[in-house]
Amino acid sequence: MTRRTALEPLTGLVVDRDAERRARPELFDELLADPATRLLPLWRGKALTTTAEGERALDLITPDRQTAALLRVYLGRTVASGIPVIAVTLTDAAAVELEPDQSRWVGLREAGADLGEVDYALFVEAVAIANWHESHTHCPRCGTPTVVEQGGWVRRCFVDGKEVFPRTDPAIIVRVLDDADRILLGSNAMWENNRWSILAGFVEPGEPFEAAVIREVHEEAGVVCTRPRYLGSQPWPFPASVMIGFEARAVAQGEVPTRPDGQEILAVRWFTRDELWAERDDLKLPMSASIAHAIIAEWYGGPLSEAPRQGRIAP
Ligand SMILES: [Zn+2]
What we know:
By secondary structure, the protein is α+β, with helices and mostly antiparallel strands. 21% of the residues lie in helices and 30% in strands. The chain contains seven helices and 16 strands.
């Protein structure tokens, strides 16, 4: 099984979203008649997963097992094996009817780190588009209930013809370093005690990502940074974000003072690699499947569960 790391997401596409096929009027009839097609059942944001020999996988079901679906979305075809996959969201009753034998309903956060990259990509896509449908049931112009078209990728208002397309909220996440190559971590007011991560925040309308990086770091930590450099991205459908990872450098030299905003961020601190290692029993860091973890680990120079390597040269 291929494990993912959040900073190498585009080594190759694993799901071809097959967008040109979405417009076919008989799309779902054609797909359901194809014995290769598989359904990805979603119930309250959870998917069916199986675990065999410690490996977790999505339990995709054959079209003949389909029950009444609240929503169907054509996710596309897996690139490696060309399997068409339809996400189906289920009512409570349908979920019980599908009662798993060996499978379990599991959320994306819980399953994320254990799934292979194809299953992870399908699960993220399914949850993200299902979340959008759930919160966009009516026309934003006139309030009429909209209907689903284009294989689940558009909602249309039949009163004024408005088409509503899925949205994703961009949020930047940034590794700020000082001139001693220390990393800036913050502790969020919403988190448990002594949990630390790199800073993050939503991009505002009309704002370039790079400007959002500089603004958020100043707002949350009182640190002026410069030269944001793109690192990678990770969809984060809780409920509708994509995290856009950056590195930036503090402008001030030497001991750069910090000033947590006191609202969202209660504490900010510069860490050396040795401090991160020495305090590992007390510090709670981001979960391994997250881009925050990957960005910290890349700076650290290896797994956070191991002592830092010596003789590293700062970039
Ligand atoms: Zn309307």
